[in-house]
Amino acid sequence: MKRIPYLHLILFLLTLLSTLVAGAVFQKGINILKEPWRISEGAPFALTLMAILLSHELSHYLASKRHHTKATLPYFIPAPITLIGTFGAFIKMKSPIITRRALIDIGASGPIAGFVLSVIASVIGLSYSTVVPVAETKGIAISLGDSLLYSFLSNLVIGEIPDTHEILLHPVAFAGWLGLFVTSLNLIPIGQLDGGHIAFAFLGKKHEGLSKILVSALLVLGLFSLLRAVADEYQIHLLRWVSELGSRLPIFWRAGPSGEYSCSFSD
After folding, report:
1. How far is 167 from 172, CA to CA, in rounded Å?
2. Which of 185, 217, 253, 267 has its CA 20 to 30 A from that of 12?
């Protein structure tokens, strides 16, 4: 008689709950402490994201079974009080993968399934998304990075967007965007990522050198992004400092030929 996988079920339910909270609070702006019954409004985001994660991990699991490799059921990782409500999911391999074919099949099956569901979710979600003026998103929305694929899907479903407007993503579209983002990260050929397993199947020990190069490149890019963010923040503070300094100077010091003054920065 097989044992009931209590730990897997508990983690799944906790992650479902935390993604429901994330969908209700951050996607719908609901205060669940005052209106706990409205947590169900986070379901479009939560169910879509959980379906993408579940399809990814179950594809790994079923591919492992097909190649007679022992693997656990998925472990979901809840992340309460975060934007997306989860840190993802994983399975553990309990026996070695002995053939290159098996390693490729097991490594690639998850990203393929997750990618397909992410594209479907993105298309459905974009059809329910709205186009709003940029001014209406200030302070209430987070600007997401764009990819060639998501730009293509946006143009396909919504059409060309004027520079003065932005797409306010439906929760299902946001879950689809997250699925594509996580899948792309997971395919980086580094270490124990799915991309790392696939690269190891093709390159063998040469994968270690590639992995070190890519890790170094990612560290450099991360440092560059951090410095850029600090520089942008410094520029804002510098602009405020100049403005405050100018307001304290005598009027004849800060007036130009027309009686006005300005301060501008350019990239």
Report:
1. 13
2. 185
